Amino acid sequence: MSRTWGITQAVDLAEGHGQLTAMMAIPLPPVPAGARAGPVQVRATILQVRTAGAYREFTVHAPGVVPGAEPGQFVTLRVGGESSAMPLRRAFALSGVDGDALSVVVAAHGAGTRWIFERGPGDVLDLIGPLGRPFPPPPTGAAALLVAGGYGAAPFVGLAQRLTAAGHPVAAVLGSATADRLYAVRELASLTRVLVVTTEDGSAGRTGRVTDAAPELLPGASVVYACGPMPMLRAVAAQAAAYGLTCHVSVEEAMACGIGVCMTCVLPVVGVDGTSRFLRSCVDGPVFDAAKVRFDDIGRLPDDLHGAAAMRATR
Amino acid sequence: MGIDMATRLGGTQIPSPVLTASGCAAAGRELDPFLDLTALGAVVTKSVQLRARSGRPTPRMAETPSGMLNSIGLQGPGIEAFLSDDLPWLASRGARAMVSIAGGAVEEYAELATRLRGARGMIALEVNISCPNVESRGEVFACDPAAASAVLAAVRGADPGVPIYAKLSPDVTDIASVARACADGGADGISAINTLLGLVIDTETLRPVLSAVTGGLSGPAIRPVALRCVWQIHRALPETPILGMGGITNGAEALQFVVAGASAVSVGTAVFGDPSAPERIGRELAELLVRKGFARLSDAIGFAHRSAELTDAAGT
Ligand SMILES: Cc1cc2nc3c(=O)[nH]c(=O)nc-3n(C[C@H](O)[C@H](O)[C@H](O)COP(=O)(O)OP(=O)(O)OC[C@H]3O[C@@H](n4cnc5c(N)ncnc54)[C@H](O)[C@@H]3O)c2cc1C
Ligand SMILES: Cc1cc2nc3c(=O)[nH]c(=O)nc-3n(C[C@H](O)[C@H](O)[C@H](O)COP(=O)(O)O)c2cc1C
Ligand code: FES
Prior knowledge:
The complex is a heterodimer of chains A (about 325) and B (about 325).
Chain A: E1 4-5, H1 17-24, E2 40-52, E3 55-61, E4 74-77, E5 90-98, E6 101-107, H2 111-117, E7 124-131, E8 144-149, H3 156-165, E9 170-176, H4 185-191, E10 194-199, E11 206-207, H5 210-217, E12 223-227, H6 230-242, E13 246-250, E14 266-270, E15 276-280, E16 287-289, H7 308-314
Helix pairs in contact in A: 5-6
Chain B: E1 7-9, E2 12-14, E3 18-20, E4 43-44, E5 61-64, E6 67-70, H1 79-93, E7 97-101, H2 106-116, E8 122-128, E9 132-133, E10 139-140, H3 145-158, E11 164-167, H4 175-185, E12 189-192, E13 196-199, E14 201-202, E15 207-208, E16 214-218, H5 223-236, E17 242-244, H6 251-260, E18 264-267, H7 270-273, H8 277-291, H9 297-300, H10 303-307, H11 312-315
Parallel strand pairs in B: 3-18, 4-7, 7-8, 8-11, 11-12, 12-17, 17-18
Antiparallel strand pairs in B: 1-2, 5-6, 6-16, 9-10, 13-16, 14-15
Helix pairs in contact in B: 2-3, 3-4, 4-5, 6-8
Flavin-adenine dinucleotide (FAD) binds next to strand 5, strand 6 and helix 2 of chain A.
């Protein structure tokens, strides 16, 4: 498979950062001999920062992370520098890879993402990736509908490239509150047969939400991919289910570790055995089969969940 | 470097004094890509109970200044799956496991120890007594010296041979007396500390952030409290080994715990920020001990108590 996806513009190495990169990108720690394939922790040098509306897209040199990285996977970054009072890493969907470079799209949210916003070319980020499970490929020839809210479009440029290259017809709905919170409209326009843009304030495309536009495109689709805030995922999942379509959702649950050791990021999911469990969205997700996610029970402890009885006994 | 970093968990020798912390490394497998598990003193596994537990609803976590609050609620597969899946994996990897057990009644702890007796890969037990006692209207074992002692005696009775550490809560008025009760009950060592009970409120919703309302505070924010606890326990029980923890992120901080009386340390929350932290901290601690002129780790344990003329008033 191609080692390049998502990144549509050439990475700008002209300003002399290329050499800097080669010196500063020291894999950390040295991968022990015989270690199994999986995520790596690297010092990633920022090559390029591009403003995309309210977002910033950071392209970094992250050797060792890219091999095997697929759309739907994510990376985590340390924030705040050496004496940071923020002990937890921040998660970002991979928006593209090219050679040893990868990119992420960042929205300024709180102190951690604001710290990332202030970084520039040549700065070094502590990065771990690739993490989580990617979007699964659709059945041969199946038409795909991509539905994204805001920076939820980040993994979709790479996914759309993969899908079109494999001969799948692709349509997309991109939505956000305001025009400056849309991402990759141009890139996805050239990769899709139909692209509908919605904004809640009408500043771009149609006024409304992605779920207002999706019903037009669902009849022509066989599989739906959705990425965005949880209420949007829940609504899109319900629409896809009404049309009997497979729907893959990429969820965004708060994470403490991102690698599966802390049990922070769980949500109730029905297993192949029919039993529901709290699954970790960082290692069992972030992409789940929407039909298996119990959206109504997120934030609750359903009685029939595996291990719920033991909680009642000790409370 | 050549410094002797070997230490002991009870009677068992381990090559490094740096371990993971329970609940911060799962059962080790997920850390395998980031560090050499066999180079750690031991992997301290997530507290296991008799039955599978779902844990609490989300949100289960809130980041706080230099720390975090968690209300995971001991999500885990139960002892059967632990014995058939998690522990054999650690053993096959050549890693040492300190197995953390938790329960809601004295007999549950005893049964867990019985089930684990002689299990391949296990080198020690850590008894997490920061759990509500269902027979005592939910009072936490670790807050009641008599109940804590009863748990340790039951575990000792179930497995006379294995090194047993009692893991204490800092949310008590006199941690040294709880430590003494655990030692009297049969604990070989003391793990200190578990998280401190905390609360965060969302000023948008004006409701607690965690669905469980309160949660356990961990990370650098609690380090001075943890260090004070280790100091007090070592003063009260100088012969009892201590596994110190609470906010350790580097070798210098680990050294503080060692000279305060810890013969080994656990690294918890720091793993979330840097999964290779336990291995790095072991390296940094060794370098620092060399720089301070120590020939072996064991010479530094409790050194701060000997290095100054400290009155009891200054120490407690
Ligand atoms: C799998 C995954 C993919 C993501 N992809 C992107 C992306 O491509 N672009 C992007 O801009 N953001 C993305 N996010 C959200 C991003 O991680 C958060 O916006 C960021 O962690 C907020 O940190 P902060 O310090 O700015 O905010 P604060 O609110 O100060 O953070 C406090 C704590 O809450 C957590 N937190 C807060 N908001 C979120 C959130 N929305 N999701 C998860 N954790 C949160 C933080 O990690 C931190 O632990 C993704 C999250 C996940 C889980
Ligand atoms: C997410 C999380 C889960 C934890 N789970 C357990 C547990 O199952 N059993 C236990 O004894 N301690 C548990 N702890 C407490 C830690 O083992 C440790 O005592 C505490 O966090 C202080 O160390 P630290 O600041 O290095 O994290 C947990 C801590 C965290 C942050
Ligand atoms: S974030 Fe720690 S287990 Fe998923």
